[in-house]
Amino acid sequence: MDLYLIIIGTLLAAICIWKVIGMVNRYKGLIKLYNQKNIQPAGKFHPFWGHLHLGADFDEFTNICFKLIEQTKTRMVSIWMMFFFPLILVCHPETAKIVLKSSEPKSKRMGGAYFPLLDWLGDGLLISDGKKWERNRRLLTPAFHFDVLKPYVQIYNSVFSIFLDKLEKATSGGKSVEIYESVGLATLDTMLRCSVSYDAKVQEQGSNHPYVDAVRRLSYISQERLLRPWLTPDFLFYLSPIGREFSKHAKYVHDFDEKVIRERRKSLADNPSVLEKRHLDFLDILLTARDEQGTGLTDREVRDEVDTFLFEGHDTTASSIGWAIYALAKYPEEQQKVYEEVKRVLGGRENVEWSDIQEFTRLSLFIKETMRMYSPVPAIARVTTREMELEGVVIPVNTEVTIMIQVLHHNEEIWNKPEEFRTDRFAEESKRDPYSYVPFSAGPRNCIGQHFALNEQKVALARLVQRFRILPDPNNVAVPTNAVVTRSKNGIYIKLEKR
């Protein structure tokens, strides 16, 4: 018996030693790989922290990337999240194109960029991969057909009428007002009405609404977890104060969604003909979609897609609209050109109609330049499932590659005077690589809701410039910060004059 235990113990020890040797060799190989001449290390490597000690947040890492590109003209940067988790940051369209054209999945493994979102958003279209992603993308595509999007324009008008009335009251007497939070409430209001036909009065209740607070905190905590690798294991995360807070908010959001889904399923079961009498919303399409085998989405799949749509559809669009309003104030000549076009298209009408949206050519250019200057999503990530050659370097399997969209949109190799706000750059003939401008990602995994988002932005901004002249607040200059979406460190303050 003793001999048997000795043999077992020896075998286990040998396996452990073999595993450790394998890890050490892989670690040495990665260190060598990520120090090749075509990959620029982010800075001095710490044997334990990797490069985490260089920056307190994602914003600082983005600035590191900017500086390295300026100094070395590099196209790839390596950053280590502690000593065991290397990332490749891609900063040039020719390199980004290789990754984006592939069908490589999002990184949802432990420690990956999308891992912190899993317990909130689930395995929806943003995060899922493989056959599941292909099936669900196919099933959800009809939800963004023009015939479905068209009636949403009236919802946009209704939502932003409330938004403008609130702004007018808040800015009376020439007062300055912070608009980012109000914009976020408006876009969430839009998403709830368009996706699940639910009017939660979020703009009236403001940040006091529990759904608004839950989504905001879930977004913040997810980002914080990425920069605290010691909170990567679930059992450690959910023992921590922020983990317990995350769990509380996720439960609220899931309970809210599940209640809406249950009620809609019952309504459709009791009266199927109702779908023929009214406009279909996103939830209707989710509940009635069937694949080639006649199988629909499960309740959990429906919930994951609703959570994903509500988050992606309101937070990123809020960033776009918020920075567009700031740019209108900052660049009055551009604002005047947009106003003249809106006045010509709408005439004396207040509401924007579906047919008007295609007429907003100047406004479209303005929105494009705003999303270049202030990319709504500053970065996206993929994980390699096969060896991939980037800039002459063979990137191994299971490597996280991050496309730095904000850096890409400001790369001096690609953009002439990138720090200059100039909408005409998108009207000029250009030989720019189409992958140099990717605010909605690109390739097979591009954003399925980009037309929905652009239409909402056009309605919001057209209604705003039609009613007000937007003025800057010289005492509050917005400072962009790169997080899950691009926000302002100190808010976005403006003043308004009624036209």
Folded structure, characterized:
Belongs to the cytochrome P450 family. The chain has 499 residues and is α+β, with helices and mostly antiparallel strands. Helix content is 53%, strand content 9%. It has helices at residues 2-33, 58-72, 93-101, 118-121, 130-140, 146-149, 152-170, 180-196, 202-205, 210-226, 234-237, 241-270, 274-277, 282-288, 299-330, 332-346, 354-357, 361-373, 405-408, 450-467; strands spanning 40-41, 76-80, 86-90, 177-178, 380-383, 388-390, 393-395, 400-403, 468-472, 480-482, 486-488, 493-498. A five-stranded mixed sheet has the order 1-2-3-8-5, with helices on both faces. The chain is globular, with a radius of gyration of 24 Å. The model has no long low-confidence stretch (mean pLDDT 86).
Descriptive terms for the model:
5-stranded mixed beta sheet, 53% helix, 9% strand, Cyt_P450_CS, monooxygenase activity, membrane, transmembrane
Short description:
With 499 residues, this protein is α+β, with helices and mostly antiparallel strands. The protein contains 20 helices and twelve strands. The protein has helices at residues 2-33, 58-72, 93-101, 118-121, 130-140, 146-149, 152-170, 180-196, 202-205, 210-226, 234-237, 241-270, 274-277, 282-288, 299-330, 332-346, 354-357, 361-373, 405-408, 450-467; strands spanning 40-41, 76-80, 86-90, 177-178, 380-383, 388-390, 393-395, 400-403, 468-472, 480-482, 486-488, 493-498.
List the quaternary state of the chains: single chain
Please identify the structural class as seen in this structure.
alpha+beta
> End-to-end span in angstroms?
93 Å
Give the rounded overall mean pLDDT: 86
Beta-strand percent range:
5-15%
Shape: globular
Count of alpha/pi helices: 20
Assign a percent range to the helix content.
Answer: 40-55%
DSSP, total strands: 12
Largest sheet: 5 strands, mixed
Radius of gyration equals 24 Å
Strand order of the largest sheet: 1-2-3-8-5
Low-confidence stretches: none
